[in-house]
Structures are given as C-alpha cells and as structure tokens.
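Raw record, unedited: AraC family transcriptional regulator
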Amino acid sequence: MNKVKIEPFNIIGISVRTTNENGQAEKEIADLWGRFMNEKILEAIPNKIDNTVYSIYTDYESNHAKPYTAILGCKVVNINEIPNGMIGKSFDGGSYVKVSAKGDLMKRLIVDKWTEIWKMNLDRTFTADFEVFGEKAQNPADAEIDFLIAVK
C-alpha cells in the first residue's frame, strides 16, 4: 500500500448511479462494463490521452455503503466535446492510497479487493476512488489492477 499524489484529470465515459446494498453495484457495474464493450465506448471517446480505462466511483452520498456514481471511461485532454449518452467530469486529484490486485477478473477479483479495502483503516474522503485498467489488465485471466482510494 503506497501513498501517492494524483494530479487533476478529466474523464469521458458512461455512468450508472448505484449502491453496494444487496449486491446491486456488482450487477450494475458488470452491466456497465458489458455496455462499455458492446457499444465500443472506448473507440467513441474523443480527445483520449490513451486507451487506459478508469472505473471511477464518485458523488458518494456519504460513504461506500450509500449510493454513488460509477463511471467507466478514459482520461481526456478536455471535456469540451461529450458524445450523446456519455458524461464528462473533472476531478481535482489529491492524496491517494494505491493498492493492487492480481488474478482472474472473471472470479470476483475486483469485488473481493473492494471488500478488503472497506475493512482497511483508511481516512477516506469519498471524493473519487478508482481502478486503473492499463496494459497489465489486457489478459482478463491474469490481470493486474491498481486501486486508488482518496484519503485525507
């Protein structure tokens, strides 16, 4: 677990308002990924910095147990041109704790890591937490994902 500084950034992608109650987020975020892949959202995002996909959790009602917005998208140069059906959002960056998970994405890798994170004694801000799906995530059966959690 490393503490890192994240610079401000912009994202364009698709989103869903969800909650972790009753496993709702697990289903809705999986559906969001399905839509992201099926509708070729990655190719449709304008002004991308690169093809790294970010899964961002933001607009928390209070903490991880209450509703929040999940966004799947890419970092972009600016959010001046947002395609229909997508959202653009700017994030301030700040202090983050970085943890990683390695394994099979189809076997609850992400959900299990978040369950661990929720139990950690972190002074979280609940502004914007995210996962990074870069080059090390290309093979879903043996992926390495970074998780960044906003802290004070």
